Amino acid sequence: MSNHFDTDIKKRPLVIIAGPTATGKTAVSVELAKRLKGSVISADSMQVYRGMDIGSAKVTCEEMQGIPHYLIDAAEPSEAWNVVRFQKEAKEAARKIYEEGRLPFLVGGTGFYIQALLYGIDFTEMDADEDCRRSLEQEAEQKGPEVLYKRLQEVDPDAAQAIHPNNVKRVIRALEFAQKSGGKRISEHNRSEHLRAPAYDAVFFVFNMDREKLYERIDRRVDLMMEKGLVAEVRKLKERGLTDSDVSMQGIGYRQILGALDGNYPMEEAVRLIKRDSRHFAKRQLTWFRRERGVIWIDLDAFPDRDDLLNYMEQTIRRLFYL
Q1: Which pLDDT band, with edges at 50, 70 and 90, does 193 fall under?
Q2: Bridge-partner residues for 33, per DSSP?
Q3: Is the dihedral of CA 61, 250, 238, 135 positive or negative?
Q4: Which strand ranges, in their side-by-side order, compose the sheet holding 103-107?
Q5: Residue 194: what pLDDT?
Q6: Burial of 295 (0-12, 13-18, 19+ CB in 10 A)
Q7: What average pLDDT does the chain have?
Q8: pLDDT tens for each residue of 265-286
Q9: How many CB atoms are closer than 10 A to CB 195?
C-alpha cells in the first residue's frame, strides 16, 4: 500500500464519487473512507460556506464519523469562492492526505470542480479583465441578467446550456472570456482542457437511479430542509447583509427563500421553486457526467442492500489500485 501513496509517483490515486444531488454520496464516501483509510475532499460549491448548513445539506460532524474532511466551512458567504480557488485548495488538501498515507476521496456534484482537479485545468487564460467585468456587471444591473444570458446563448450556446440564467457571475465570466480571447468560446476552452491526460490515477464513480425515484428523494430532502429551519438560516444570512448579488446566495435553496423574504412571492412558491430547480439541476449534473471519460456508473437501484454497494465499490478500488 505504501508504494501507491509514494509522493514521488507522478500519478497518485484518487477516488471520485460524483452524481446528482440527493443520491447519498456523503454516507457512502464516509463508509468507504473508513474501510480504506481515506480522507474526503468536498467537491460541493455550497458546503464550502460557513453558516450555510441546511440548504447545502452539509455533512455534519456526526456524519463524518471521525473521517477528515477538507473544503467544508472553508470560506465566508461574503467571499468570492470559485473554481480557481477550489483547484488550488483541493490540490493542497490532496497533498496533505498523501503525506499522511491516506487515500483521497473527492466527493460531490459540482462537475466543473471535479474536472478542474482531475485534469489540472489551466486557468491562466481565464484571468480576470476587471474593466470588462465591471462593464458587464453594470449592464446586468441596469438591463437585467437575462440580457447577458441571451447574448451568451448567441456567443457560446454550449456554455449557456451549462450555466443557469441566474448565475450572473458565471455568465459574465463566459462573456468576458469570449471578449478577452477574441471570440474564443469558453466551452471550447474547457473541452480542450478536458482532453488533457488526468493528473491523477482516478477511479471515477457516478451515482444514478430511476429518475422518478430521484425526484421524490429531492422533494423529500427539500421538505426536510424546511423542517430543519432553512428559512431561519437564510434570514440570518440576510441580516448579515448578504444579497442575491453574492455568489453564495445564488445557490439553490438560498436564492428562492431570499426571494420570498424580499416579498417577491409567497414561501410556498419558494418551496415549489426549490424543488423544481433542484430537479433541473440534477438533470444538468447527469448530462455533465455523461460527457466524462472512464466513468464507472453506479445504478443505485441495482443495490437495494447498501452493504452490497459498499462491497462492490471497495473491491473495485482495491483491484484498480492494487490495495
Answers
A1: low
A2: none
A3: positive
A4: 69-70, 38-42, 103-107, 13-18, 201-208, 295-299
A5: 61
A6: middle
A7: 90
A8: 999 999 999 999 999 999 999 9
A9: 8
pTM of the model: 0.82
Q: Which of 142, 127, 141 is nearest to 173 (CA)?
A: 127
- Cα(290)–Cα(285) distance, integer angstroms: 9
pLDDT tens-digit readout, 230-266:
999 999 999 999 998 899 999 999 999 999 999 999 9
In angstroms, rounded to a whole number, what is the distance separating the alpha carbons of residues 17 and 206?
6
- Separation of alpha carbons 226 and 276, rounded Å: 15
**Rounded Cα distance, 151 and 121, in Å:** 26
Burial of 74 (0-12, 13-18, 19+ CB in 10 A): middle
Q: Which three cell numbers stand for residue 39?
A: 480522507
CA distances from 84 to 126, 158, 245 (A): 10, 21, 20
Task: Please count the CA atoms within 13 angstroms of the CA of 131 that sit on its side-chain side.
Answer: 2
With CA atoms as reference, report the closest residue to 16 among 112, 90, 108. 108
